[in-house]
Specification:
- By secondary structure, this protein is an all-alpha fold.
- 79% of the residues lie in helices and 0% in strands.
- The longest helix is centred in the middle third of the chain and has 30 residues.
């Protein structure tokens, strides 16, 4: 299983390295979300280009706004990355070849989930830099923030990989995937926002409780994906 997962991981990352879809198309889209909201919330003084002042939000804490917008951008990027990952498998019968190969379905699941996770984590680093640039944020707990990003990313990609395989062979996959994906990952997004908010806040909160919840979701979703991915490939 580990060997097969490594083969799929290398294949998907090699395709992404050659096409550069994530960094040339998905990343600008996610960054644009942060920029638009930054201007909408008056976090950037746009009147004077030489003025580097940043205004604090009037009625909402900066950490709440930053964490919410950050994970909103990550969610949309994850959705696009999942669609991209399985759209390349539907061309020229590649999905059938993958299903009929001797590769372990659990290994295929882990490989594709790992490739999407690697792309998302790189994207989160870019988004984090832009969030610091456009929003008045201060990371009070870097360790909590890193653990939150890793666990939330695992939760997003494992669910996305399962639903991507399920909808890959359908004509309405572009509209069906968001409908299936969003309700399942809502707890992950809520936990990620709360944990990130606490990591960016100067006060001690209950962030690690949300981190433990994200751990539970990541473990459950990964285990379910390993068990049912073979059936999902057959259905697709």
């Amino acid at each position: 299983m580990v060997h097969d997962a490594w083969l799929i991981l290398r294949k998907d990352l090699r395709i992404e390295w050659r096409s550069k879809v994530t960094m040339s198309q998905i990343a600008p889209f996610a960054v644009l979300i942060l920029i638009l909201f930054a201007f909408a919330l008056d976090n950037v003084v746009a009147a004077d280009p030489g003025d580097s002042r940043r205004l604090s939000p009037d009625s909402v804490a900066a950490s709440t706004i930053t964490s919410g917008l950050f994970w909103l951008a990550v969610f949309f990027a994850a959705l696009l990355a999942v669609q991209r990952s399985f759209s390349i498998e539907t061309a020229d019968g590649a999905n059938d070849a993958l299903r009929l190969s001797s590769l372990d379905p659990a290994g295929i699941f882990l490989g594709k989930a790992g490739a999407i996770a690697a792309q998302l984590l790189l994207l989160e680093v870019v988004l984090g830099l832009f969030a610091v640039l456009f929003f008045p944020t201060h990371v009070s707990s870097p360790a909590q923030l890193v653990v939150t990003c890793v666990l939330a990313t695992l939760g997003l990609v494992t669910v996305g990989t399962c639903h991507g395989a399920l909808s890959a062979g359908l004509r309405s996959r572009d509209t069906l995937l968001p409908l299936l994906y969003f309700p399942i990952v809502t707890p992950v997004l809520l936990g990620a926002v709360k944990a990130t908010q606490d990591a960016l806040s100067s006060t001690v909160g209950e962030g690690w409780i949300w981190v433990r919840l994200l751990t539970v979701f990541a473990v459950i979703y990964t285990a379910v994906g390993i068990l049912i991915f073979g059936s999902l490939l057959e259905e697709a």
